[in-house]
TrEMBL record:
Residues 10-259 form the EAL domain. It comes from the Bacteria. Residues 9-18 have a biased composition (Low complexity). This is EAL domain-containing protein (Putative c-di-GMP-specific phosphodiesterase class I). GO terms for molecular function: cyclic-guanylate-specific phosphodiesterase activity. Residues 1-22 are annotated as: Disordered.
């Protein structure tokens, strides 16, 4: 399939008509995965994820140009709000985390207005939306400052996805104080079986905590990983052990032994 055909298909499916099933006839759908508070096991947010035939579609999106990615991100955001509202988000008690590619954001206000307007139609206040920036390390400090200022002025809050090896992105996180920062799942998922990874993650978490950052540990896929993360004082967790992504509903966290 040519790239133009792929983009056209992705764009057309990302804003479903009212009553349409997610991704009907396209292989694409919006799923929701819970992010839970360890204290009490309560829902903190639902992260919207684009799936193609049940697998994450982010790899496909990363191949798009900035202009193409901008359009897909905006359509995904609208679809996420609409499908979350249909699944009962208004009474869920959580926030809705919507991923965006930071380098693809042109005019920040224009970029999120369609999602904000859709949220308003469903009675969802902007403050319950969290726009999670991916690849935020790839833009300049001034561009990131503009995004943070505009988004927060309009109501939603901003989270950063991914503090990776060698503390990539940590300086930006400390400077801009996002709503939350996600530690990448690739770093988290092996800490129960890797001594060196456990030491590295523990040190990274201490540095993040010293900056006053709210941490989300993604990749919490087993009880041993969850227990280790909990012992580090991380407040928010996400992964298969917490709850798998689901389409058509907002799954409740399934944490055990929540402190």
């Amino acid at each position: 399939m040519e790239r133009s055909e792929s983009v056209e298909s992705e764009n057309s499916m990302m804003v479903p008509e009212s009553g349409a099933s997610p991704g009907a006839g396209t292989g694409l759908a919006i799923a929701f995965q819970p992010i839970a508070e360890i204290a009490g096991g309560r829902i903190h947010a639902y992260e919207a994820q684009a799936l193609r035939d049940g697998a994450p579609a982010t790899g496909d999106f990363d191949q798009l140009s900035a202009e193409q990615r901008r359009d897909v991100d905006r359509r995904c955001a609208v679809a996420a709000v609409r499908w979350a509202a249909t699944a009962g988000f208004a009474s869920s008690g959580g926030r809705l985390a919507i991923p965006l590619s930071a380098p693809a954001i042109g005019d920040p206000a224009e970029h999120i207005q369609p999602a904000l307007l859709t949220a308003r139609q469903y009675g969802i206040v902007a403050e319950r939306l969290v726009f999670t920036l991916h690849h935020y390390q790839a833009i300049t400090s001034s561009e990131l400052a503009d995004i943070m200022h505009v988004f927060n002025k309009l109501g939603p809050v901003v989270a950063f996805h991914g503090v990776g090896p060698n503390e990539s992105g940590l300086a930006y996180c400390g400077k801009f104080a996002p709503h939350a920062v996600t530690i990448e799942p690739e770093l988290v998922s092996t800490i129960a079986s890797s001594w060196s990874r456990r030491i590295a993650i523990e040190d990274l978490i201490r540095r993040m905590q010293s900056l006053g950052l709210r941490i989300v540990a993604a990749g919490v896929d087993s009880e041993p990983v969850y227990e280790r993360i909990r012992s580090f004082g991380v407040p928010l967790v996400q992964g298969a052990h917490v709850g798998a992504p689901a389409t058509g509903c907002l799954p409740q966290p399934a944490l055990r032994n929540a402190a």
